Amino acid sequence: MSLSSTVTVTVPATTANIGPGFDCLGAALTIYNQFQFAQLRTNTEQQVDITVEGLEADRVNRDESNLAYQAFVKLYEHLGQTPPPVEINIQLGVPLARGLGSSATAIVGGLVGANAFAGSPLSAAEVMQLAIAMEGHPDNVVPALVGGCRLAATTSEGKWEICEIPWHSDIVPVVAIPNFELSTAEARRVLPSDYSRADAIFNTAHLGLLVRALETGNGKWLRAALQDRIHQPYRQTLIPGYNAVQDTAIAAGAYGLVISGAGPTLLALTSSQEAANVEAAIANTWIEQGVTPLVKALKIDSTGATTKEA
Ligand SMILES: Nc1ncnc2c1ncn2[C@@H]1O[C@H](COP(=O)(O)OP(=O)(O)OP(=O)(O)O)[C@@H](O)[C@H]1O
Ligand SMILES: N[C@@H](CCO)C(=O)O
């Protein structure tokens, strides 16, 4: 099998949970990270040479602890092979630790890059299983790999069943990315380990309604469906100004506003008509609350990770 000498993997950001879909629902967004892998020619024991450029580049590790490299090694370990020495160039467009799936881009980039580098021995489904195992939950890595909005559920054999959730073209995702980080680990620590039957029923009903609302574009359903009792009530306190921004976004015409992934980015869903109003209202209110956000209307990426080999 002929092996590629350079592999470039482009991976979209993702927004996970979307209100009631904690740890099972996520969508790919039109912001991207790029990971380029090339053979490292060296006479030393050096295994990896990492360069990072773009947004917040100085915040990413350049040693063997780098998550994209860890994923690269993981795939070779899975194959029972020693990973080759590799040069990795990372171009960052997805802000780090903001609830937009930056870690998922690194995991997907490393696994997909290693698989292509090794001559594609694993199927897309096998790469997906490895990615979910590395991230610990499917809601970022699955849409990062295959694009679109995806619901993931385990089968009785413990595998993952992935279902595409159609996203109505008039529902616009607006992200408000604040100027501070919140690690997923920290945002998971504040969650309880048990929930009441009432909360379980509440989220089951709202997730069902959300799936239908996303598909049909029914605004009345969407307004009700974005409520959640599993993670948001516990995480809101980690995000200054959350309630004020939510109120103002809804007053400006958003169907609702939720925490993107583990936060602190906030995600408003709105119609294309109201998107500009909602963007301005969120930005002004969060600034009044002392937080400087970057607010952007995005689209759903329908492709997921793409690979170029040279
Ligand atoms: N491009 C990258 N290359 C290497 N490591 C990365 C990259 N992007 C993120 N990481 C690692 O992932 C960490 C952030 O992961 P974390 O799960 O806390 O946030 P997130 O993935 O951005 O948010 P969320 O999971 O809520 O969407 C970073 O601190 C860094 O260690
Ligand atoms: N479902 C995850 C997404 C962030 O990785 C969480 O909310 O913790």
UniProtKB/TrEMBL annotation:
UniProt-annotated binding residues for ATP: P95, L96, A97, R98, G99, L100, G101, S102, S103, A104, T105
Source taxon at top rank: Bacteria
Recorded GO MF terms: homoserine kinase activity
Reaction(s) catalysed (UniProt annotation): L-homoserine + ATP = O-phospho-L-homoserine + ADP + H(+)
Alphabetized InterPro entries for the sequence: GHMP_kinase_C_dom, GHMP_kinase_C_sf, GHMP_kinase_N_dom, GHMP_knse_ATP-bd_CS, Homoserine_kinase, Ribosomal_Su5_D2-typ_SF, Ribsml_uS5_D2-typ_fold_subgr
Record's subcellular location: Cytoplasm
Domain named GHMP kinase C-terminal: residues: 211-286
Pathway: Amino-acid biosynthesis; L-threonine biosynthesis; L-threonine from L-aspartate: step 4/5
Keywords from the UniProt entry: Amino-acid biosynthesis, ATP-binding, Cytoplasm, Kinase, Nucleotide-binding, Threonine biosynthesis, Transferase
PROSITE patterns: GHMP_KINASES_ATP
Domain GHMP kinase N-terminal: from-to ranges: 66-148
Protein EC: 2.7.1.39
Membership in a protein family: Belongs to the GHMP kinase family. Homoserine kinase subfamily.
HAMAP family attached to this UniProt entry: Homoser_kinase
Function (record text): Catalyzes the ATP-dependent phosphorylation of L-homoserine to L-homoserine phosphate.
Protein's UniProt name: Homoserine kinase
Species: Trichocoleus desertorum GB2-A4
